[in-house]
Known about the structure:
Keywords: Aminotransferase, Cytoplasm, Glutamine amidotransferase, Repeat, Transferase. The active site is at residues 2, 600. The protein has 605 residues and is α/β, with parallel strands linked by helices. It is built from 18 helices and 27 strands. It has an eight-stranded antiparallel β-sheet with strand order 3-2-4-1-10-9-11-15, with helices on one face. α13 packs antiparallel against α14 (428-449), α14 packs parallel to α18 (569-587) and α16 (476-491) runs parallel beside α18. The longest helix is centred in the last third of the chain and has 22 residues, at 428-449. 58% of the residues are buried. The structure holds fructose -6-phosphate.
Amino acid sequence: MCGIVAYVGPKDAAPILLEGLQRLEYRGYDSAGLAVVNAKSLKTRKVKGRVADLAAAVPAKFKGTSGIGHTRWATHGAPSDVNAHPHLDQEQRIAVVHNGIIENADELRRRLEGEGVKFESETDSEVLSQLIGRMVKETDSLREAVLRALKGVVGTYGIAVIDAQRPGEIVVARNGSPIVLGLGEKEMFAASDVAALIRYTRQVVHLEDGELAVIKADGFNTFTSDARETAKEPFTVDWDAGHYDNGGYEHYLLKEISEQPDTVARTLRGRIDDRFHIAHLGGLNMDARETRSFRRVKIIGCGSAYYSGQMGAQLIEELARIPADAEPASEFRYRSPVVEPDTLYVAISQSGETYDTLAAVQELKRKGGRVLGIVNTVGSAIARETDGGIYLHAGPEVSVASTKAFTSTAVAFALLALHLGRVRDLSPADGRRICEGLRRLPEQIKEILTLEDRIKELAKKYADSPGMMFVGRVRGYPVAREGAQKLKEISYVHAEAYPASELKHGPLALISPELPTVAIVPDDELLDKNLTTLGEIRARHGRILMVGHRTSEAADDCIVVPKNEVELDPILLTIPLQLFAYHAAVALERDVDRPRNLAKSVTVE
Ligand code: F6R
């Protein structure tokens, strides 16, 4: 959600912090601020608004070679200059930026106020700066002060702390909210996301929960909350700064939609075996015997990741004939799930840092569950916590709404389903059919992208509807859910998805000329049933946009996409709906890459 960036080295910190914050803006963005240390005092600027507003508020002479910056997505206290981070202690010696939520903030605040501390803001985060400020006077060591302060803190945090008395040193800590260190040439960085560091270094170290680090220009050391030193090996991120550019597109979202022929090809690369018609998924860390031993697959993820999991469950049931289902990780983690030894759990996350999904993985692991991760961000928390998995290799997804990670996840599930199927009863002929189908996907996605102008027209036509219904049957239902999700989150047009089969059990009452329906109608064994549903909608004067493999007179408008194997068609059917949502949002002049109230990576509960 919120973004953190920190720098210590020989250069002026402010421009580096502002650049890093710009890269993080997609994570959270109702206010921003930074603090640098100069001549044993702190200089701070905080504004409600965008990073550009902060940059405008930072004077040219804002000198200091170490500092911390933050973009905020308000949780405790409204977006305002004073609630923006960094927060200072009352002596103005310590500055803290914080991601996460301090659960015992009220209690700590009352205690500190009782001791005479005056708070400036309404945030939970300020208790950290005030606590550390008190401790640093007792210990005269920033590291010791942070360690002691955090002992009394309950909640989640990623923090970066500076001390006016120690210009060359920053302390960072992680508990449930990511912190990554970036290793430069005689300079060090820290951030909540590699995106903020990538222009300066690709050598990174991820902190684990409960871990802290002191960073200085000439290096870092890491330790646990009980002050035991830890040894960390840096690794090289395979994304570079170019991946974070908009590539000349008006929006990141359109860039990421357009990248899909390539991103899908990357997810597939080196993973299809034409000899045995199987998938090579070395990262699963399971031999054939173990792979055969599972009797059930349970998939968890949040939002679009969950919908891609529904697509995955369908693929696994069809190709591997193993009962499979998907559930929102945010629900799963709270219902004390029964964890069975013969169930394979699969956690999905683009960012690899979604708190609800991470917490669900941790609950599963605690109960002895075998958990795989389907993750885009290499080295992220979920990738590290799982027993094995599949990396998407889709490159960084910057726009808040997920597109290329969604399709790559569905492709990863097709590979997993093929893998599970071929150690069971999926025939070589069917294995071959799926392998060939997978190979056709990138070219077919290219074909779908050529329909953009037509889809743009349709999006304009339907964008001013007060709401839209999305319907699909079985394989088409996750497509409908994801289509509705994309439309609502970026265009703010109300959109509901239903299984087409459920319409007459309730939602048909909503159908009218004012509520158009997007119907997902693949050429599969359910085609006739779907066409009957279109007739029912038509009879209630509902307007219909059909997305499928043919045109139909039952629909007002049709988008026809290339046909693949029935099991893989849902992946392709998703793409016109991404373009539809994008162009509807543009037509309505929405902030496409940064939809209101949303943030890219939800690292709080
Ligand atoms: C929708 C969207 C969100 C994410 C969800 C999970 O377009 O982006 O619904 O899919 O917050 O995020 P990850 O995949 O990072 O765990």
